[in-house]
Specification:
The complex is a heterodimer of chains A (about 160) and B (about 300).
Chain A lengths: L3 E7 L2 E7 L5 H8 L18 E4 L2 E4 L12 E3 L12 H8 L9 H14 L5 H7 L11 H15 L5
Parallel strand pairs in A: 1-5
Antiparallel strand pairs in A: 1-2, 3-4, 3-5
Chain B lengths: L22 E3 L4 H7 L5 E4 L3 H8 L7 E4 L9 E4 L2 E5 L4 H6 L1 H6 L1 H8 L4 H6 L2 H7 L7 H6 L3 E6 L2 E6 L4 E3 L2 E2 L6 E8 L5 E9 L6 E12 L2 E10 L6 E2 L1 H7 L6 H14 L10 H24 L1
Parallel strand pairs in B: 1-3, 2-3
Antiparallel strand pairs in B: 4-5, 5-10, 6-7, 6-10, 8-9, 11-12, 12-13, 13-14
Classes of the chains: A alpha+beta (about 160), B alpha+beta (about 300).
Chain lengths: ~160, ~300
């Protein structure tokens, strides 16, 4: 293909665009759909700020061709909350002071979501492992790990997913 | 293999926000992919982590990208008594989470488990990592000591190549432009095997300054076979027969580990670069080989 009509399912909503193969997934999300919660930072796959979930798996949208996510289910930070109600992971980030500048937060929340879906009761070490692909330059991570721990506990008690 | 071009003519690795145009193909079978590979200046893409990054750096500028993701016959991890096989689309994460790998091929598990980023492991494939032929690969050294074989497929032929013969130079393998690596085969492990993978990096998340995989086969307290593979100390991953030879036929103890470790350090000719110095790399070879052998010897008894 050089230019093609493609279907994308983002946060449960279906979109159709004519895309070129060189379009990166992050540009589809930010520029075409206007979902700017997904952040562009290092561009080299080191920082994880651009993380989104594709079919539930954490993917770096700055290194993924949009065309490879065609017809797949893409979740960005905008699709995590239920209307005005924050997802338990987001609420735990607020409650634990895990957000400072906020730039890494969307990626952190999505990595945490992927982790908790795979492993609902992670140890602190497993949380560190699950978030190892996401860098934060403000918090030194302690409060982020606290937040994911708290979210796991709350979700385990039926606090929603 | 696409031509390597320096976009600005000065060899600068300039990061660009967007990719330059290319044509994209998504074959459904290996045969179809092989036919497409005859297009001039085309590149294969499995996970895309390395390729897309190098396209953004303008280090690789293909006219066509052939995505392998829609070829179901390449997406598998399976094992039988003969060994473990995984296809070109098996992600590093799938290998890490495979109970079979965790149980029977622990040196491979240790190597993929310590790779930090879940995202990179989810997108990246083991075969892609090997085909990129970076000297720092954490996946190559364990496959060296496990005696893995690389299945290379061309139009109307296929061959099985020992992984030690696969790498040629930095970024270069024996793979011809019209060939595809479809599978890695890892033989089953006999009883009495002990192995270990260790890595020295700037941070836990960084790629290796030096990495080492070792395997020992112990019977009646005597070392029957020893394999030591090192990464990041030369243009390709290497075995160090000088050190392995010292261990064979010996009773394994701290003195033997130390002697083999010195022999390994003497045998390598690393370079100094942004991650480390040649001198430090040599010293770390000594430390890692000694520690890995001690760990492997304990595992062999367990």
């Amino acid at each position: 293909m050089k230019k093609e009509r493609a279907n994308f399912i983002v946060n449960g909503r279906s979109y159709e665009f004519i895309i070129e193969p060189q379009m990166l997934l992050i540009d589809l999300l930010r520029e075409k759909i206007g979902l700017t919660g997904t952040k562009y930072a290092c561009g080299t796959g080191d920082c994880g700020a651009c993380t989104v979930l594709v079919d539930g798996k954490p993917v770096l949208s700055c290194l993924a061709l949009a065309v490879t996510a065609r017809d797949k289910s893409i979740l960005t930070i905008e699709g995590v909350a239920e209307g005005a109600t924050l997802h338990p992971i987001q609420q735990a980030f607020v409650d634990n002071g895990a957000v400072q500048c906020g730039f890494c937060t969307p990626g952190m929340v999505l990595s945490a979501k992927a982790l908790l879906e795979e492993n609902p009761k992670p140890t602190r070490d497993q949380i560190k492992g699950g978030l190892a692909g996401n860098l934060c330059r403000c918090t030194a991570y302690v409060k982020i790990i606290d937040a994911v721990e708290a979210a796991a506990e709350r979700m385990g008690k039926g606090g929603g997913s | 293999m696409g031509a390597l071009k320096n976009y600005d003519g000065k060899g600068n690795n300039t990061m660009h926000r967007v990719l330059l145009p290319f044509e994209f193909f998504e074959p459904k079978t290996v045969d179809e992919a092989l036919r497409l590979l005859h297009t001039a200046n085309s590149k294969l893409m499995a996970g895309g982590v390395d390729l897309v990054l190098k396209m953004r750096l303008r280090q690789i500028l293909p006219d066509a990208v052939i995505g392998l993701q829609k070829i179901p016959e390449l997406d598998y991890i399976e094992s039988n008594p003969a060994g473990l096989r995984f296809g070109a689309l098996a992600s590093i994460r799938q290998i890490e989470l495979s109970p079979l790998v965790q149980k029977n091929w622990t040196v491979l598990f240790e190597a993929v488990h310590q790779i930090a980023s879940v995202q990179t492991k989810t997108m990246g494939t083991a075969v892609g990592n090997l085909c990129v032929a970076t000297p720092t690969s954490d996946i190559a050294p364990p496959l060296f000591v496990l005696g893995a074989k690389v299945k290379i497929v061309g139009l109307n032929y296929e061959k099985l190549v020992p992984i030690e013969n696969f790498f040629v130079a930095v970024g270069k393998t024996i793979l011809e432009p019209n060939e595809i690596v479809t599978e890695i085969f890892v033989p089953g492990m006999p009883a009495g095997i002990g192995s270990a993978f260790l890595k020295a990096g700037k941070t836990a998340g960084d790629i290796a300054k030096v990495n080492a995989a070792v395997m020992v086969l112990v019977a009646d307290k005597i070392c029957k076979d020893a394999r030591i593979a090192l990464g990041s100390v030369g243009p390709t991953p290497i075995r160090v027969p000088e050190a392995e030879g010292l261990l064979k036929g010996q009773k394994l103890d701290e003195t033997m580990f130390a002697e083999a470790a010195v022999a390994a350090a003497d045998a390598v000719k690393p370079i100094s670069d942004i991650r480390s110095t040649a001198k430090y790399r040599k010293e770390m070879v000594r430390v890692l080989v000694k520690d890995a052998l001690a760990k492997a010897a304990v595992n062999a008894k367990a």
